[in-house]
Amino acid sequence: MKILYAASEVSPFAKTGGLADVAGSLPTALARLGHEVKVVMPRYGSVDEIRQPLKSCGGFSVRLAGKDYPFTLWTCQLPDSPVEVLFLSHDGLFGRPGLYQEKGKDYPDNLERFAAFSRAVLEVPKIMNWRPDVLHGNDWQTAPVFAYRRAHLSDDPPYRRLGMLFTIHNLGYQGLFPGSEFPKLGLPPDYFAPAALEFYGKVNLLKAGLVFSGVLNTVSETYSREIRSPEFGYGLEGVLQARRSDLFGIINGVDYQQWNPAHDPTLVQPYDVRNLKGKRVCREALQKECHLPIKEVPLIGMITRLTAQKGMDLVIEALDELMRLDLQLVVLGSGEPEMEQKLKSAMRRYPEKLSVRIGFDEPLSHRIEAGADLFLMPSRYEPCGLNQMYSLRYGTVPIVRKTGGLADTVIDATSSHLEAGTATGFVFGPASAHALLTTVRLAMKLFREKNSWYRMMRAGMAADFSWDRSAKEYEKLYRLAVEKAAGPVKPGKT
Ligand code: ADP
Asked: What are the pLDDT digits (tens) for 366-377?
């Protein structure tokens, strides 16, 4: 099949979170299955020309609400992959350092930026003279593609039978804008209705994907069920409930070329499941790098956006108690300024136990995965989560909340799982500081029982979350999307 994969971030070119990891690795796994995939993303000011210069494929313009948006199309290969990446450049909209924001503030023209980008995505097949079977969009930034295809191109021969899949990576981010901005989209007025893009008087770009795509999925089975409930649905549970027969859950895979402790160039010493000596060396190196004493105490790592979604408020609430325990905690993250401040001030109070790095630092994220004994991920909700899977591969035992993809990938250290040798981590239920502390204490107790501990580490390292299996699941959804191509959901039907 020919697949056009649209995403607002693609690793290694631009990344703020898990979407980039997925967009940078799923297409290669699909190519291994014999599909032809082209990935399309905006050319941000921060996109480096990695390993090879980008080649121009010419320019074109799209017109929205009477305004012309001239784009240039650029191309290069995804590193170590046969997949071609297409960049759409428009200096006025994307020639900026940030993807969505700068200094913690969203760009005020994000609706216009991603609407124009989405509309331009639909011109790519014409410019490339390439006819995809499936269009795969991701998250709110590319969701308008589905509304434009419906409103502007459903009678256009190359698009009439186009299969459409939309993936929700995080329902908490919906691309909400004031209703007064709707006209800028250049969509027919009846698309500003609850059955289409309107959401309580606002424009909700994500809804364009939810309503107009043939097939929907999210990034774990559990999350695909959770989002149909008021607790996780962020007001969209009704729309998702109405489309439940088209909604699937596919767990993300891990790019084991990027995340493999045996071949990770950022580590001082590589290691694998048969030889864990290198992990000790990485641990000491991490303690040194983080200015923590080199000690045999459980070292807990966190790499995260600093938000309540990730349970950072629970960690902050539990911090003084945590610091009373004989452990060390290394946090790498950025996000809400108040959380950053609280963590930094706690670091001043506990310099021997807590190290906090504010910022986005990919090499350090690898060194934390390798050097830590435990990885803490107490998310309130987690569509899939990648770091717990990286932790498993790096022999770093995850402590997670029982939600979304965390529940689907970590096997709790209950006595029966420990006995059977299947336990890979610690899973707790309530979203409370108390439950978090209880679970950390339990993990520390097991950390001292070396036989059980190594068994658990090894079970985690042997777990396989490679993309191949998930890519086959995506293949099935693409087939379904092609079958459904003749009958997308119409406005007024949800
Ligand atoms: P998210 O909800 O943020 O997308 P995921 O677990 O799905 O969460 O993916 C987050 C990705 O971003 C992981 O690859 C993680 O290592 C990376 N990441 C998050 N914060 C940082 C940071 N401060 N520095 C480096 N990498 C980070």
From this structure: 999 999 999 999
Q: Is residue 260 part of a domain?
A: no
**Span 246-266, pLDDT tens digits:** 999 999 999 998 999 999 999
| Domain annotation covers residue 258 | no
CA dist., res. 395 & res. 196, Å (int):
46
Q: How many domains does the chain have?
A: 2
> Is 32 within 8 Å of 45 (Cβ atoms)?
no
CATH number of the domain enclosing 433: 3.40.50.2000
* Within a domain: 261: no
Closest atom of ligand 1 to 19 CA is 4
Tell me the CA–centroid distance for residue 330 and ligand 1, in Å. 15
Ligand 1: residues whose CB is within 6 Å? 17-18, 21, 170, 303-305, 332-334, 360-362, 365, 384-387
Claim to verify: residue 75 and residue 214 sit in the same structural domain:
yes
Q: Which atom of ligand 1 is nearest to the CA of 332?
A: 23
Rounded distance between C-alpha atoms, residue 242 and residue 337, angstroms: 38
**Residue type at position 443:** A
Q: Which domain holds residue 456?
A: 277-463
Distance CA 441, CA 218 (A): 33
Same-domain pairing of 236 and 160 = yes
For residue 334, the surrounding DSSP H or E stretch is strand 328-335
- Does residue 51 register a pLDDT over 70? no
Residue 144 is assigned to a structural domain of this protein: yes
Give 348 Cα–ligand 1 centroid separation in angstroms.
25
Reported confidence tier of residue 53, pLDDT bands at 50, 70, 90: confident
Q: Tell me, yes or no, whether 473 and 459 share the same domain.
A: no
For residues 427-432, average pLDDT:
98
Statement: residue 488 has pLDDT above 50 = no
384 Cα nearest atom in ligand 1: 7
Residues 193 and 122 in one domain: yes
Residue 18 and residue 169 in contact, taking contact as beta carbons nearer than 8 Å: yes
Distance 16 CA to ligand 1 centre (A): 7
pTM of the entire structure? Answer: 0.93
CA of 24 to the centre of ligand 1 (A): 14
